Amino acid sequence: MTTPVVQISHLSFGPVNKPILDNISLELEAGHFLGIVGPNGAGKSTLLNIIAGLTAPNSGHIDLFGRCLTRFSRHKLLRQIGFLHQLHDHAPRLPMRIRDVVAMGLADYATPWRRVMHSDAIREALKRVDMDHLANADFRQLSGGQRQRARLARALVRKPRLLLLDEPSAALDSVRQEKLFQLLRKLCDDTGMSVIMVEHDIAAISSHVDSVACLNRKIHHHAMKGEDIPNNVWRAMYGDHIHIMAHDARCIGCAPGEPMHAPDNQHE
């Protein structure tokens, strides 16, 4: 039996009387592409931070690549993880070439004389996001979408076994969003890399991911392709005031021959 890339058991975080995450259990195999959806304040970003070892849970257990995540094992395990944080709208002030921004994702970035050894990896990561022609450009001069693609290259440069993405399509137009999701799908299929991606639009990602976890404090439903997500799950996550809209029946969340149901206010 293959060891799961991520195994989370009964994880909780936050005040006991009002937890941010409550009794989360989740397992992810190699090559699996998981999308996480839920409303604002649902705990999606917090869950990614905990998996990445940046935040300690109040209770529960996490295994990464078959090893327990602790403050002692964290440094070694995180070398196998790429993490794209949520994009914040601020302009960088320091002059940096794009290739240097990408190099920051290398485990030995602190030893600049060794970066030459990774020039091929930097070039490959930029090529994957269609940015190799801008390798020597000033990062400050990029558009918001270009910065986001450079940040994605930074997360990919170490060729991680697990990639954590917090709304990676932010600032990307619809064409770039589709290319991004196709790239992630290809990386999962070709390299066995696993992806956990927080996104607000289930319709945009559902034709690419293997499953969708519906999160609001706890996981209300974990749907595989072709599986219906009942209306009561959407209402448990977003409240009774939501409006249900039909989408393409091929999407995750729909049983074959039935329309997909998704709320129109699903933003993180």
Structure report:
With 268 residues, this protein is an alpha/beta fold. The protein has 2 domains: 6-80 and 162-263, 3-Layer(aba) Sandwich (Rossmann fold); 94-159, no CATH class. 27% of the residues lie in helices and 24% in strands. The chain has 8 helices and 12 strands. The chain has helices at residues 44-51, 74-78, 98-103, 119-128, 144-156, 174-191, 202-205, 231-238, and strands spanning 6-13, 21-28, 33-37, 59-64, 67-68, 81-84, 162-166, 194-198, 211-216, 218-224, 244-247, 260-263. The strands form 3 sheets. The protein has a 6-stranded mixed beta sheet, with helices on both faces. A hairpin with a 2-residue loop joins β4 and β5 (67-68). It starts with 5 loop residues before the first strand and ends in a 5-residue tail after the last strand. Mean pLDDT is 86; it is low at 254-268.
Short characterization:
The longest helix is centred in the C-terminal third of the chain and has 18 residues, at 174-191.
Number of strands: 12
Number of domains: 2
Largest sheet: 6 strands, mixed
Class derived from helix and strand content: alpha/beta
Strand order of the largest sheet: 6-7-8-3-9-10
Q: Assign an overall shape.
A: globular
Which homologous superfamily in CATH is the superfamily of the largest domain? Answer: P-loop containing nucleotide triphosphate hydrolases
The CATH architecture name of the largest domain reads 3-Layer(aba) Sandwich
Describe the oligomeric state of these chains in a short phrase: single chain
